[in-house]
User: What shape does this take?
Amino acid sequence: MRKRLWQILGPVVCAALLVVPVLALTPTSIQHKLKTEKSDAVSLSKQVFKSKLKKERALTDNKQNFVPFFGSSEWSRMDAFHPSVLAEAYNRNYTPFLLGQKGAASMTHFFSMNQVSSAMQNKKAIYFVSPQWFTKAGANKGAFQSYFSNGELVAFLKSATSSAYDRYAAKRLLKLYPQVPLKGMVKKIAKGQALSSLDKAQLSFQSSLIAKEDSLFDKFSVSLSYKSKIGNQAASLPKQFSYDSLMQLATAQGKKESSNNRFGIKNDFYSRRVASNLTKLADSQKQFNYLSSSEYSDLQLVLKEFAKNNTNVLFVIPPVNSKWASYTGLSQSMYRKAVAKIKYQLQSQGFTHIADLSEEGDKSYFMQDTIHLGWNGWLAMDKYVNPFLSNKQTTPTYTINDQFLDKTWAKYTGQPEAFTQK
Assistant: This one.
């Protein structure tokens, strides 16, 4: 029996004896490495997204102005006019740090920014908020779980109070991740209960352990070359910055790269994702509705976090490809109402920097595919982003309205200005 137990537990014990000393000797202090930080900024990997060290290291580097760009799958559309390429090509005083991939939405970003709250204080940020996040079901469970980390969980639990926002965040976490680790503690926060001394001691220990693991794994992480991903494309742009010359180049490139379809969609995307299903997709979005969704409450959680950290934010609202919307039956009237609702939630609380591109979906080579910006779309976005980040902005004054956290607002479909809590 002893021999059998040793065969089962022996490898675990030996591994622990090897790993524990290594972790104990691993330093957790931040050492800035510009080459690594720039690679992390465009990696778009889950490892970077989940790592407190990688995010904090870049956002606290006083020699390089890394700005968090929160979003989802649009950041992976890296053509020559992508925000990261433009910033590099024209030596701007900021470098986008891209956070988000397919399926990421407000709950994912809340826990990510909460983990590096101190690094967000009094900084600027770009937040890409797509009306298409605001489906009836809201955030996708699978996507949320794939981006969520133990480090984010522990950071949230350590900072959580009995506030309505923390209770909401805990309840949403339990719904999106029913088997979340430390579930008992999450339930306490959801109920507005205080964590015990033992809970806090466990969190402190886990926080220290996670920091050491983060630091250790960072030493062995391999990122794609910033030069090959961004630098080479930046070198292909005109040396002298001019929107007119860039738009001519973007139009020519967009025309060349979307030549096999009538929707202005990039050729390879159309061939891979659309062509074989084209008939089935006709009128497939007639019933889509973005006016009633828990995403509105999730967004409020993010706004509260921005306000807490006094983060000055530019929100980007994209359009949909108009030709594609017409083919699939997506209601443009409904889309406009959803945009109006989002903008009211932002503006009425002091978030007044908004790049509203929602009416631009009919412009040539504005969208790279059905829903993502590309070519001329990136340039239109840049006309908002560059001045906002390059120039000094007045300190924002936010007036957070807790009514927007309530499900009454999430389900509200009337005129935004007429909203009143019953």
Summary: Strands lie at 66-70, 95-99, 124-128, 312-317, 354-356.
